[in-house]
Amino acid sequence: VFKRDWFKLWPADRPLPQFQYVLQSYDCATSDKTHNDPTACTVWGVFKPNDDKPMSVMVIDCWSERMQYPDLRPRVIDEASSIYGDENEWGHGKKVDMILVEDKSAGISLIQDLQRAGLNVRSYNPGKTDKIGRLNIVSPIIAKGLVYLPESTAHEGEVRDWCQEMVNQVCAFPEVRHDDYVDALTQGLRLMRDMGLLTVDYLYNDSDLYVDETQPRRVNPYAV
Asked: Do residues 115 and 76 lie in contact, with contact meaning Cβ atoms separated by under 8 Å?
């Protein structure tokens, strides 16, 4: 669904931009067992490349790790205090504006604990849309060149090492063993699009493909 050359590279010798919004997106493991799927985190920084280009987003951090919930909770709370961007700019970088967690499995408990900790967390429910459908919904954002990846400082033209696994997984999907990065990426891009932080020319009418608990549930009068 995704092509590797759709992603834009942010030159390694160029300072990081000043981010206007930072989102952390989590896809939590299904179970608490030691052999469970990994929990994945993708961090997104929204910025404007220049006056002639639309608002874009950069992957500024990502990680995937197998961990049980007692270890996951403090890790997420600690990550929420991170500062992203150029520390030399005014404001010394950007704090996290929102944490997005899919409300299933361990994510349900995580959302509750983050709320108790006073963090700005939002739950995400993709509804009945399958993973291919979720990828197709956000693919125009990447195809338009609105998603940047940081270039490696050691290998010109390649992404940084910590970002390589995520790119490999989402570009190879569905022929992959794990899809934790796929979920973390699609839900993050979807929310930023729905919030109006990212805009594409083609607006896909997918209002019935996921559940937004903040909106009243729609009823089809012809389905009676």
From this structure: no
What does 113-144 look like in DSSP terms, one character per residue?
Answer: HHHHTT--EEEEB-TT--HHHHHHHHHHHHHT
Pick from 144, 142, 163, 143: which is nearest to 152 by CA? 163
Mean pLDDT by 10 residues, the chain (224 residues): 90 91 91 68 94 93 91 93 74 85 88 94 87 90 95 93 94 85 95 93 48 49 41
> Which pLDDT belongs to residue 222?
39
Q: What is the pLDDT of residue 86?
A: 67
What does each C-alpha distance from 214 to 68, 129, 217 come to in angstroms? 30, 18, 9
Find all residues with CB under 8 Å of 70, minimum gap 6, and list them. none
Contact 49, 15 (CB under 8 A): no
CA distance 115 to 96: 15
- CA 163 vs CA 63, 90, 204, 207: distances in Å: 8, 27, 28, 31
Q: What is the pLDDT of residue 177?
A: 81
Beta pairing class for 8-10 and 94-95? unpaired
Q: How far is CA 196 from CA 21, 92, 173, in A?
A: 12, 25, 27
Structure tokens of 200? Answer: 């594409």
